[in-house]
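Researcher: Let's try something more involved. This one mixes different molecule types, so please make sure each is placed in the same coordinate frame as the others.
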Amino acid sequence: MKKLIAAVFATAVAVGAVGAEAKDWKKVRIGVEGAYPPFSQVTADGKLVGFDIDIANALCDQMKVECELVTQDWDGIIPALNARKYDAIIASMSITPERKEKVDFTNKYYQTPAKFVRKKGSGIEITQDGLKGKSVGVQRATIHDNFVTEVYGDEVEVKRYGTQDEAYLDMVAGRVDLLLADSIALEDGFLKTDSGKDYEFVGPDFTDPQYFGEGAGIAIRKGEDELREMLNAAIDAIRANGVYKSIQDKYFDFNVYGS
Amino acid sequence: MDFTPVIDNFDLYLEGLWTTVRLVFFALVFGFVLAVPFAIMRTSKNPAVNGPVWAFTYFFRGTPLLVQMFLVYYGLGQMQFMIELSQQPAFEFLQDAYWYALFAFTLNTAAYTTEIFRGAILGTPYGEVEAARACGMSKVQIYRRVILPSAFRRALPAYSNEVIFMLHGSAIASVITIVDLLGAARIINSRYFTPYEAFISVGVLYFCITFALIGGFKLLENRWFAHLRPREETTAKRKTKVSQAA
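Model: All components are placed in one shared frame. Result:
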C-alpha cells in the first residue's frame, strides 16, 4: 500500500513537472459542436463534416500539428475548454465581450449577419409592435439568445434550445413563431432543406458589434498567447494561399469572411 | 466563486422553482389517480384486464424518462394532425412544452406507482379480506374499506421514494425549453459562464425540496404507522416526537 501511494505520488510529481514546462504544441485538441449545419455536423455514418471542421483541419495542416476533434454540446463548450478537455474551440463562436472575460480569441475566421426566419404567410414584422406576444426560438447561450433577451425580452417569449437542430424541429411543429440565428446556418441548415421550404427570412441583417461581436473566432484558454499567435498566423496563411477560398467555395457562393 | 449572478437573478430561480413544483405536483396527482385503478387491474387474474396494464408498466419502466419525453414532445409534435390541432385557437396550449412534459411525467410515475401499489395490494393479509367477506361486504366495499387503506399504508415508504425520484427526474424538462429549476440554472450558466455557482445554487434548492418531502413523509408515516410502535409509548410522548420531526 505504501509503495502504491509512493508510486502515485511520484507519477503526480512527474506529470506536474511536465505540465510546468512550456508546451511545444505537437498535438492540439479542438472542441467542435457537431450540430450546426453547414458549419459543423455529424453525418449519418458518424463522421464530422462542415466548414468549421475543414477550417480546423486546414489550420492544423498549416501549423504542422496533429489535430484531435472533440465534440461538445454548445452550452458547456467554454467550461470544457477551461477544464482542459481540449485546447481550442472552432465552433462558429462569435467574439463577444462577455466571452472574452472567460477565454481569449484569435482574429475572426468568418463573419456573417444574423436574421429572423418566419413561416411564409404569417405576416410577422420585426418591430417592437410586430413582435408583441410572439415566441422566438434561439440556441441557448448564443449571441442571438443575448440579443433577443436584451432587446426584445419584454415583447417576446424566448424559447431556448440546446442545439439549432432542435429549434428547427419546433419551428416545423408550429411551437415557435420566429427563429433568430446566423443567416448562413438558417439558410443552409433549414431553409434549403425539405422541412424548411415553407419558411422565409424576414427583417434586416443584424450585425451590431455590441451584441453580435466581431465575427467568429477561435477561442483558447486565457494566457496561451503562443497558441493564439500560431492560430492567427495560420488563419492569415490559409487566407493568403487559397486554402481558405477553396473551403469557402465548397460551402458558399459568396465571401463568408466579411470585410 | 462569485454568486452575484445567482443573487441578481434569484427571481429566475424562484420562477423555475415554481414551475418544477407545479410540474411534479400535477404529475404525481394525475399519476396517482391513474395508478389506483391500474394497480387493481394489475392484480386481476384475467389476462384481458391484467395484460394491457402489464404492457403499459413494462414499457414505461423499461425506457428512460428522457426517451419518453422526446417521444412525446418531438415524436408526437411532428405528426401532421398535432401540428394542425395546435394551430387551432382552442388548442393553442399544445404549443407549450409544459403539457408534453406533464403528460410524459404523469405516465411515467403512473407506471411506477402502479407496480408499488400492486405489490402492496398483493401483500394484504388474506385473513382481512376473508373477515370482510364474512361480514357481507361487497367487492367494492372490501377494496374501499379494507384492502386499499392498508395497501396505501404499506406502500408509503416505497411511494415516498417514487416522489423524490420524480422530483429529480423532472430536471430533464429543461431540455425541451421549459424554464424549470435546472432550466433557470442553465440560463444563468450560459449568460455568465459560471457553471459552479449556477449549478451549486440549484442543487441546494433541489436539496431543500427533497428534505421538505422527506420530512412530510416522515410525519405521515408517524401517523399511519402509529399502531406499529411499541405500546409503552404514551400519546403525549408521541405528540412531542411528531412535532420534533417537523
